[in-house]
Batch of 2 targets.
Target 1
Amino acid sequence: MRITLILFFAAVLLAGCSKMEEKKQNQPETKQAPGDMQNPHGNMQNGSQNQAGDKTDMAPDNATDEKADKLVKEADDFENIFKKSGTDENKKTLIDKHMAAGKYLMFEANLSPKKKYGPALKQFKRVLELDPKNQEAMNNKMQIEDIYTSMGRPIPN
């Protein structure tokens, strides 16, 4: 009786293992490192990858992103125009430029977290200086602050 039971369990175990091996062979191979998770803060429309298909959290600390640099420069340059004129139209344009830079940095830039969240936070804070009721900037600012808090790091000024 014992031998029959042992043989039965051995057969079930072998059948289960062969099915698992069969499933592994049918799945497409991914080049994902063990323990590598998708970026939970990646672009909501494009998953955790930017438009080029690069993983955003995989960028090294010395990586640069030309589009991010361009958007930040445009916002900074427009600050001078706004300081000279101060019109409502220029204020709206300035808010749009800071929002575009902040959102790109936060969701799409192929930069390390160290290089994207601090500058994005700066952009959202500037939007809130110009428009304290801007809900999108407030939500993004709070999300970045939550990221810093969850990592046990001080929130940049």
Target 2
Amino acid sequence: MAKFKLDEIDHQILDMLIDNTRIPFTDIAKKLLISAGTVHVRVKKMEEAGIIKGSSLTLDYKKLGYSFIAYVGVFLNNTSKTAFVLERINEIPFVTVAHITTGKFNIFCKIRAQNTAHAKDVIFMLDDIEGVYRTETMISLEESINDKKRLMHDIFNEI
């Protein structure tokens, strides 16, 4: 598959969609001085090329009572258990991200909890999964950087 070429208009469209995935195409069109149909066609092409994969909603977990964040490194008895363990991890809704990794851990997870007691329960759920040898936890004191645009702009500058 040939590499999809993005131009400056595409970059600006993506920039606005990253800020607000629900922005109407007509609003984007007005800001860019193009037609809403053009925005629609360009977004559709970027979706078909796999550059845009759906849209997402950002929740304020603090307001929902889940302000405690921890990262849990999972050590496995045997790497052949990775798929099985990931299936069990996927059943724990408080694990919001899981990566298969190299280095110290076999799997690295992000968990959200209500408080330390709740986080302990979630960590114990991970520890109890068959094939998990042990876990190691790091508590997040603050999310200092969560910028979806910085990398995108750097990629655009390279193109």
